[in-house]
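Hi there, hope your week has been kind to you so far. Thanks so much in advance, here it is.
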Amino acid sequence: MDPELSEGEEVFRDKCGVVGVALREPDAQAAPLVYYGLHALQHRGQESGGISVHDGRVTRTHKGMGLVDSVFNADVFEELPGAVGVGHVRYATTGASRLENAQPVVIEASLGTLALAHNGDVVNSATLRDELMAKGWGFLTTNDTEVAVRLLATELANHDNRIRAIRAVMKKLTGSYCFVLLLGETIYAIRDPLGIKPLCYGELKEGKGYVVASESTALNILDARLVRDVSPGEILEISKDGVKSHPALQASPEIAHCMFEYVYFARADSVIDTRPVHDVRTKIGERLAKEAPVQADVVIPVPDSGRTHALGFASASAIPFAEGLMKNRYVHRTFIMPQQTQRDIGVRMKLNPVEAVVKGKRVVLVDDSIVRGTTMKRIVSMLREAGAVEVHVRIGSPPITSPCYLGIDMNTRTQLVAANHTVDEIGKLIGADSLAYISLDGLQGAIGHDPRHLCTGCLTGQYPVDIPGETKRKQATLF
């Protein structure tokens, strides 16, 4: 479900997006390139943004609340000189949405200034925070990233080798993380051993430097060539002199790529762990059409998140595709509206049916997911008011029945309509003539990875890491 269509309660939020840029020329400016990379990843986080750069002598940081184009301008870039830098856009999953939790998180350590940007969620961060506080550490934020960066500072002080220090920290962390760490003129790109969150790197044209980012679309914007994904457990050491790989000490027998990157989070023009997201979503729609066929006159998406799924469904079912819902991109979120009538108006401001497309038609409405069902119920109602004679809802993921603890702001079962209702019950709640979700087998087949290499905890209740009170899927240790 597109977050711009939500009322605050019907929304998935991903932890964040990260970018790192290292340029070969010492007088080159990394900050503008980091900014454009973050702009390409704005869908991954819209609460705050930040950039840290190093100019050969000192590290400077600027961050603020809001979208990146409101946080940065030409005057700010003049205050951020340097050929190497890292950046971050954030949604809050661990730690409140306020300025002190904006990233990169910057601290002073014995080896210099550390600036860390993080995508993911460290499940055991509270325990690690307590251990550090018992040793005398104080904390300026409430996020898990500061826990990780202070662990790094401690280990860097205790090791004469940076890679060994980073690996020592990785062994202490449980959960999902992709880090871009700026230490002096070097960026360290670090991916957790299960590869839960995406991270890739590329080369700028004419040998001008290197880029690491959460998604390949950020590389495209910078006209950089995608080299490959960072492997699970790998550390990349990136500087003006090149990229050095430090592979995982021990390959995990199972990895756990987040299935929701393919279903919803990543931009459709990204390539995630060798899989083009657009192709995966098209296959999801095609499989959904085969699993849950329906007699209808038109297939329409919930924009923008359901569009590619709907295209696949229309192609496989030979039912015409049409844009039956128009989206207004210039409307503030409606959860701040206190009265139900105002919230309903807010939904209509964001989405409006095209009567000429739906009137007198049997409609297939396609979206990527249903969270609580409240927004879907309103959309179905709007289509009926616009003249649709039938509304059949098709969903490009299996029912979301369990919380996510690994980077999606969805941590209680009370948020999830599918946790307490059958598919038939949900169909009645949203007012659809029929409702069907893609099967788990169908989803895994569309993604194309070995099913053992996907995290489907929110669908199955079985997680790839130890989470108190939850079931861990059968898996070897992380290292």
The chain is about 30% helix and 25% strand. Residues 275-448 form a domain with the Rossmann fold fold (CATH 3.40.50.2020).
